[in-house]
Amino acid sequence: TQILPCLSTINHDPKNFSDPYKFDPERFLDANGKFVRNDHVVIFGLGKRKCVGDVLAKAEIFLFVAQIVLRFKLTPATPISKEIELGLAIRPAPFSINAMPR
């Protein structure tokens, strides 16, 4: 018998996150703006069935974002809404940015 965790339920548990359905990236920063690790975030799964590419994916995303931030000054083109659309996948509303070469 396979038992698979429901990641959506874990990632949106009010015991682990205040206002879990609000798109709020700042919840992962402390008062000084430093990243705060949260062991309740399970994006890549758990246990034996955990995504085998999670370390590679995180490294690639870091390198990609670092190159963008290094080469461009990013500013919002329009006001950014933190509202989310509920559906099959939970995602933030679309937004636009200006990317000016440094």
Automatic annotation (TrEMBL):
GO terms classed as biological process: organic acid metabolic process; xenobiotic metabolic process
InterPro entries named in the record: Cyt_P450, Cyt_P450_CS, Cyt_P450_E_grp-I, Cyt_P450_sf, Cytochrome_P450_fam2
Binding site for heme: C51
Gene Ontology CC: cytoplasm
MF terms (GO), sorted A to Z: heme binding; iron ion binding; oxidoreductase activity, acting on paired donors, with incorporation or reduction of molecular oxygen, reduced flavin or flavoprotein as one donor, and incorporation of one atom of oxygen
Cofactor: heme
One matching Pfam family: p450
Protein's UniProt keywords contain Heme: yes
Keywords from the named record: Heme, Iron, Metal-binding, Monooxygenase, Oxidoreductase
The family this protein is said to belong to: Belongs to the cytochrome P450 family.
Name of the protein described by the UniProt record: Cytochrome P450 2M1
